[in-house]
Design a protein that fits this description.
3 domains; mainly alpha; flat
């Protein structure tokens, strides 16, 4: 297969996956595996797992990170450009259309009710994630982790401490503890 044909297939595949996938980056990564590992045989299962781990641990959207890694592995820098454009194009178009029509319908009681309902749904998802993650912290039985979790909640909720400051403090604490444990 020629380089241009491969780039075109990568573009079409990522455009299709991004346009018809709902549920976030992990859903896209699983569909990328079906296409690139199972369908085309361009990547091994181990390579896809490694790319997923890197995409998850890197800052930014998992779908874009996975597109960058996959595109680079398959076709170098041109593969990155093609994969990223194909990945961000569908959400960009959808959001552009929504924002255009939102300006027209923002004062509609129906639209306001739908947005309120979406806020409730987002709040429920965030509560679910918080409960799931805090349950995992408690299961570790690490006194330090549990104390940090409770302290972070108290500092943010009762004292309005910036979350950014807490993240920086946790990063510094993690580095200090990491060096301390190596000794």
């Amino acid at each position: 297969m020629s380089r241009i044909a491969r780039l075109w297939r990568m573009f079409y595949t990522m455009l299709y996956i991004s346009a018809f996938t709902f549920g976030g980056g992990f859903v896209i990564v699983s569909l990328m595996k079906k296409k690139y590992v199972d369908g085309y045989g361009w990547l091994s299962e181990e390579e896809m797992l490694d790319m997923t781990a890197l995409a998850q641990s890197s800052p930014g959207a998992i779908a874009v990170n996975a597109a960058i890694l996959t595109g680079y592995r398959l076709a170098g820098v041109p593969g990155v450009v093609v994969s990223v454009i194909a990945t961000i194009l569908p959400p960009l178009l959808v959001l552009s259309v929504i924002s255009f029509f939102y300006g027209i319908f923002r004062d509609s009681p129906v639209v306001q009710a739908v947005l309120k309902g979406m806020q409730a749904g987002v709040a429920a998802v965030i509560c679910d994630v918080v409960l799931d993650l805090s349950g995992k912290v408690v299961k570790t039985k690490s006194v330090l982790s549990i104390l940090l979790m409770v302290a972070a909640f108290v500092l943010v909720y009762f004292f309005n401490v910036s979350v950014i400051l807490l993240i920086l403090a946790a990063a510094i604490l993690g580095v200090v503890i990491g060096f301390w444990r190596k000794k």
